[in-house]
Amino acid sequence: MESRIPIQNLYYLLTYAWDCLEEGGLVDVSGIESSDLADLYASVMLSGVRHLLRRGLEQTYVPVEAELAGVRGRIQVAASTRRMLPQHGRMLCEYDELSVDTLPNRILLATVRRLIEAPGLDRRLHDELRALSRSLGGVRSVHLHKQLFRMVQLHGNNGFYRFLLNLCELILDTSLSTEEEGQYRFREFVRDPKRMPALFEAFVYNFYRRECPEVDVRSECIRWAATSEDDPDLSFLPRMQTDISLRTPGRTLIIDTKFYQQTLQKRFGSESVHSANLYQLYSYLRNLEPRGGADAMVEGVLLYPVVDRALRLRYVIGGHALTVQTVNLAASWWEIREELLGVVVESNGLNRSHDLLPTSGPRMSS
Fold first, then answer.
1. Mean pLDDT by 10-residue block, N- to C-terminus, for the chain (366 residues)?
2. Is residue 52 part of a domain?
3. What is the CATH number of the domain that holds 329?
């Protein structure tokens, strides 16, 4: 994309997409001057793990086997006899002991060590990460792989752990081995054609869910307004699932998010809206009509990130207001917020007195 997204904004996108605004707000990224992803990752991990250390690392009971002069837990009689421990007044015991050597803590340590090996990492961050790894005494490292994150079980109020583990998984996903053994650099996931569309959709969805508390925000399945003797259940028709449906008693708005390297399609020297996107959204609008009420006049928005220029194109197609609009993810966070709020209150030319006007303030600062 020509419009480069500042790493602070990437962080805000992630915290919304992961639905971790409160947890993400504990880490201040506003002072990061670097544009390197490794520096962002390192800064967040430093602040996050330090927060956990101050609060106390997660602990769990782990089985321990030890030779003791007394008795604790279960005595291993056969093993004690083979070792002739009773003659020396000792017994082999097995017992449970609280330990910080848990899987989540192992993942955090392994991720910190991976970041230490990133070439070009800011020297101050490098030294602070090394000191941080030493402070995780009692925690063993682990080889990072995708399945490891599926094995994690968090209990109780561990939202901040979930936030950091999401970051650890992102760091793993974007790691690329260098020619130097044990070193990693990180590819820009903004150019990932699979990850960024999903991230952008989750960001926008949770943005409206958070910032518009009086609005019903959901993703919904739309039933085809069709009948068939051959397929009475319409099971062979493709599923229509909205990215974001916004509803109040008097209005319905469907937002379809798209994340492309080029906002418009080019053909025969001319530019136009991506036809598949337009047909898909219009199909949603037409098949919602039979529900009646506000759905009969449902509005639609195709929402893209700005690439080379901003767009706000309004149409009325088949009686439905439809807007093609961009949001500039390279702007300040306050400008991004205002643009997104403007989508829902101005998509059909309405002003900010409309009933979709959000009531809450911003949750992050730039």
1. 74 92 84 80 93 89 85 88 89 88 94 91 93 92 92 80 93 70 63 85 95 92 94 93 93 93 77 89 95 92 87 92 92 91 67 42 42
2. yes
3. 3.40.1350.10
Could you tell me which residues come within 8 angstroms of residue 189 by beta carbon, excluding any fewer than 6 positions away? 170, 173, 174, 195, 196, 199
- pTM of the predicted model as reported, rounded to 2 decimal places: 0.81
Strands 299-305 and 320-327: parallel
On the 0-12 / 13-18 / 19+ scale of CB atoms within 10 A, 56 is exposed
- The torsion of the CA quartet 137, 142, 147, 153, rounded to 10 degrees, works out to -20
The whole domain housing 120 covers: 7-58+103-190
Q: Residue 347 has what pLDDT?
A: 54
Q: Are residues 170 and 309 in the same domain?
A: no
Element (H, E) at 352: none
* pLDDT given at position 96: 86
Instruction: State the pLDDT at residue 159.
Output: 83
Whether 228 is in a domain gets the answer yes
Q: Are strands 251-257 and 244-248 parallel, antiparallel or unpaired?
A: antiparallel
Is residue 363 in some structural domain? Answer: no
CB 212 within 8 A of CB 344: yes
The CA distance from 78 to 64, in Å, is 17
Q: Which two tokens stand for residue 129?
A: 């990460």
Question: Same structural domain for residues 89 and 155?
Answer: no
- How far is it, in rounded angstroms, from Cα 303 to Cα 68? 67
Please state the domain count of the chain: 3
| Contact (CB, 8 A) for 285 and 322 | yes
Residue 215 sits in the same domain as residue 157? no
